[in-house]
Amino acid sequence: MSTNDIVMSIRDVSKRFGEGCEVCREDTSTLNGNICPNCGTVHAVRDISFDLHEGEILGIVGESGSGKSTLMKMMYFDQENTSGDYYLRSYEEGAENVFDVSSQKKREIRNEQLGMVYQNPLHGLKINFSSMTNIAEKLIAGGSRNVGEMTARGDMFLEKVNIPLSRKFEAPKNFSGGMQQRVQIAKALSNYPPILLLDEVTTGLDLSVQADVLELIKEIQREMGVSMIVVSHDLAIIRMLCDRTMVLLNGEVIESGITDQILEDPQHEYTQQLVYSIL
Amino acid sequence: MVQNFAFLDEHSKKEIRRKTLKAIAVPGYQVPFASRELPIARGWGTGGLQLTLSLIGRDDIIKVIDQGSDESVNAVNIRKLIQDTTGVPETIDMNEATLVQSRHRIPEVPLRPSQILVLQVPMPEPLRAVEPSERVTKALHGDKEYSGAWIKMFEQIMKYGHVTDDADYPVLVNGRYVMAPSPIPRFDNPKMNDNEGLILLGAGREKKIYAVPPHTHVASLAFDDHPFEIEDFSDKVCRESGVSGVFMDELIDPDTGENYYVTNDTSYMLEQLNKEEEHVN
Fold first, then answer.
1. What's the CATH architecture for B10-220?
2. For A84-128, how does the pLDDT look when each residue is reduced to its tens digit (9 = 90+)?
3. Which CATH fold would you assign to the domain A3-276?
4. Averaged over B230-242, what is the pLDDT?
5. Cβ contact (<8 Å) for A132 and B145?
6. Which InterPro entries match (chain B) (predicted)?
């Protein structure tokens, strides 16, 4: 792949909860898991770097507490990073570290260049507002002020995610979990963001609904060419969706590469354990 | 013990004046202030009253109105308190008054230069219906992120086909801050734009002061295809005075059961009636 099709670059990104001490700030090799035995600081994400290419789906796997969600939250500016750089092709051609821009600019990037689907629809939706209004929120934040245009866009995306239009004025609180998740996906996509972040989107859904949502994600990627980062602890989902995969353990990338390769021929001891335990 | 002039001690007045100056310097921005205890309960006009008491001087002429009326209990009691502690003369005439405290109306007579209108505010935060956290709404104001105010209106359009906020309809002040204009009817919103006088808004319970200085641009929020509209009284005539083109109350005649309209701003109505009488004599 050529370098100009990279839509997102993450360089040496770290997040620690706590001040850190002389022991753990420079050298993290002495940590007990991801916790410093000396000062108790949690090193949730440690020096992670990767690129996301145009139109690809990148998977991030790892157990609970491995730093997947923290990494995701930093990419969507829900959480501040401790150190590291973050570049987006859609922002200043990737010349500026977007971790350093003003909070107003960060909101702009969130609203116009990123889409996020949270594990819990409560985080991504205004649960008491109608589905249509939820989609419009993203469009309004992106600067749209025309009700007719926004409802037309909303209709289109609700149809795409198979929400019956007869229920578009209903609030997601009346919907099933799977439907809520699909409204969230419609909202995240409504501004045609070049990058979509999906955090454990199918966790907690039953198998047939999971299949629906996964099918939808595949379809969106095919049709709209959106680049995606999919976070999951479920290897079956990673196998189905992702071109490339990173395995996280205690905040560090321990293995990365083509998904098939990682699943068929895992190198790291932890990955081997993970792969063999899905039987 | 002798009560200080205008009830509040001088330090309290200084605090309120200082915050008022800041509010005028940043139009539409809610300035937190140390709201004082008063002999009336918070939520009953204490924000407006503190502004009035900190501003009033011996040369002032005070007018107090409550939803257009100079004679409602709330207006009378606040006026009494102000007069008892200052001894300044009162009036109901907008042309005479130098300082006007009002609840939920901007008078029909336009403000003139150097006149001050104080509005009582129950809920100063226009984003509160969508975002309960003060910390978050402060950040949203800082980032000029007002989709919360917009989606509230969008939701109303989705549900009822039009924006249903009749009072406290949000406005954008000086192209920067979205502001709750206090529960004045939509009818009064355009009066704030580029007006001659100073409008101060005080929320005593919520401890906020904000301002619309003279000649400030104030625009009511509206979608491109759903323009802002004021209440329409164009075909209504006041039964008492025969005036039209003003904000009116709809009342029901208990004898006939028919509804009729009366001018809401009573001093304006009285003024019109007096003019008419002079004309006849």
1. 3-Layer(aba) Sandwich (3.40)
2. 999 999 999 889 999 999 999 999 999 999 999 998 999 999 999
3. Rossmann fold (3.40.50)
4. 93
5. no
6. PhnJ (IPR010306)
